[in-house]
Amino acid sequence: MSLVTALIRRRRHRLLGRLVQEALALYGMEVPAACEIGPGLLVYHRGFGTVLHPYTTLGAGVTLYNGVTIGRADPWVPQEESAMRRVVVEDGAVLCAGAKVVCKEGVLTVGAGTIVGANAVLTRSTGPGEIWAGVPARKVGTRAGWEPGYTNGSRPVPHSGKRTSHSPSPSASSVAPAKP
Fold first, then answer.
1. How many Å apart are CA 111 and CA 133, to the nearest integer?
2. Which tens digits make up the pLDDT trace of 40-50?
3. Of 14, 22, 50, 109, which cross-links 125 as Cys (Cβ 3.0–4.6 Å)?
4. What is the chain's percent helix, strand, coil content, to nearest 5?
């Protein structure tokens, strides 16, 4: 477990909570005590610039890279009047560097095993095992071989690393002929 992950786990400590919050702030992280975080959280690059809204739930085995933001799409509205209720990031999801997940209204759910690409701006819920990218984010593929389920208590079942995409396959002219 990394130092940052250990600090995140201890942010609700009765006596040390405030000190832990300040230590996380030195890393540029804002993880309120109200956030619900499941086991097996992985934070890469010390999470520099990561900000989570207090109404955030992270499932088991979630991976966060640096610069991830989870929050409201209407920050100018007082919290009590906001249509946003919660952001739920389900088990095994990966939020890549600079990903923004912003909820307009109700509950926004990032499906189990979903990957949100670098610098993507996700404003709607996703299904399980999907790959989302772009601004605004749109579905660009699915995680081939990804299946829900966990081993060792917290890490996702490995997948083949391949993905299926909606983009056309390479043309026949771009594929080298097989050697005899």
1. 14
2. 899 888 888 89
3. 109
4. 15, 30, 55
Count other Cβ atoms within 10 Å, centred on residue 103.
Answer: 27
Across 7-11, 22-26, 61-65, 96-100, least confident range? 7-11
Nearest to 124 by CA among 143, 137, 115, 140: 137
User: Each residue of 113-129: pLDDT tens digit?
Assistant: 999 999 999 999 999 99
Both tokens of 19, joined, read: 């000190």
- CA-closest candidate to residue 71, choices 83, 84, 81: 84
Give CA–CA dist 107/58, Å, rounded.
Answer: 13
Across all residues in the chain, what is the average pLDDT? 81
Angle (CA) 111-39-89 rounded to 5° is 20
